[in-house]
Amino acid sequence: MMNCKEFSDLLDAFLDGELTEEQAEQMRRHAAECAECAALLALRRDLRALEDEVEVPDEFSASWREAVRAEATGSKRSPARAFRQSWMAAAAALVMIFGGALAMSRGKLPTVYRTAGSAKAPAAVAQTATTTDEAPAANESIAANEAPAVNEAPAPEQKAAENDAGAVLSLFASGSLSNVLYEDAEESEEIACEEAPMMDWAAESQEENAYMAAEAMEAAPAEARKAQREYAAAPVMSTALPTSEPTSAPTAQPTPEPTSAPTAQPTPEPTAVPAPVPEETDAPAPEEPSEAETAEGETLSWLFWLGLAVCVTGIAALAFLLIRHLKKGKA
Amino acid sequence: MEIRLLKRRQPAEEFEALAAREEKRVYAACYHMMGNREDAMDCAQETMLRAFRAFSSFRGDAAFGTWITRIAMNVCTDELRKRRDAVSLDAMREDTGYELRDESPGAYARLEQKERMRLLREGMALLPEDMRRMIVLRDIQGRSYEEIAGILELSLGTVKSRISRAREKLALILRKSSELFSDRSV
Question: Which residue of B48, B117, B139 to mutate against A (max A Cβ within 10 Å)?
Fold first, then answer.
């Protein structure tokens, strides 16, 4: 006679059909007499039936195969894609580095020269050109060399210059015109010679500025120097002008015509350098308001730090890409 | 040798050939673990993808069926764990508030098979995930103790004891639900 323990131990074999016919008959007889073992047998049979009632959906059979094939295709393409992406990332990092460096160099410029120059320079030149007779004569000699730049100058700036005529007078009154001239010289030097902005604009004294402007001219391209020679009379002329009329000095700027003076102003040419230098001696620079310096200094400092952050980020990204590339190479 | 060369040349095709043989068992294991068709599809699909991604590391130390079933169990466990974090089913399971009378141990066997199957599915869902895994592999899919030990990477003794505990737990759940069902029927 089979007991419950024996029944439980042989149950798996019974369900798998591995028992002898005699053992199987004993199992059936025990289940008929024992309700608990009958329940256990029913439970185990039902559990086996759960497996039989499962049907694999057709969409699963199709979908996993598609997914595997897509995965296989994607993994084949990934190395080339990763290669392209890494080169694009490296290029982006380089752009960040150079952009950051440029922003840093711009951010290091002195505040004083930026204050009035950026907004008022065209207007100032326009005003001075219209108030002096010598200006056209002096500027015509430059016009031949500067013709393309003058023609390309945008017309809206002329209007802006006319509108700002009143503002220019106040600029002169406050002594800011010298800053305008410095701004012109700064821009022309920046274009003509890359060393000039970084090393020259820290100078404070007017003599130093004149000396550095001359250096910038030397570093300028040959074409610019040719124009400079033709325009050599400009400093002399401007120094000959009475100091009580500082408006004559800006006319020595590369302005072919009085009306087109502002248009020539934004085109930085080395020829514009000598004009502001002698004029600077006459301009009442020491009277510049310190408030303007402070305000602009904050902006420039922000630009510098932004450039530094971008530059450092770009270097870090480039280093990361390089390390990853080296690691992959080793692998 | 030929199979190895084929595997090296066309891993996707070789994987498909092997996985197709286990397709039904993988899906069924996921179905029993998850309890419904949609979740079973998702888990089985994830199992196939994970298996394919790891196929290069499969060296044939274990049978492919054992290897891919282990992946399926892991996928289901991960999914169930996520859901358990969202809603604590364990707390719901513990607080049934029902005392087993133990007067009618064979109540389950006396029910109609249709009702038994329904109660069984519900009982499986109430079973803790680690115990459900044991019941699925041993009692539903009929895998040997040795194979289960290989799938779950456990010792044979641990597998036997865990299966035994899982069966007791399931029997207890079903006895409770059967008595409740019998009481409602009467």
Answer: B139
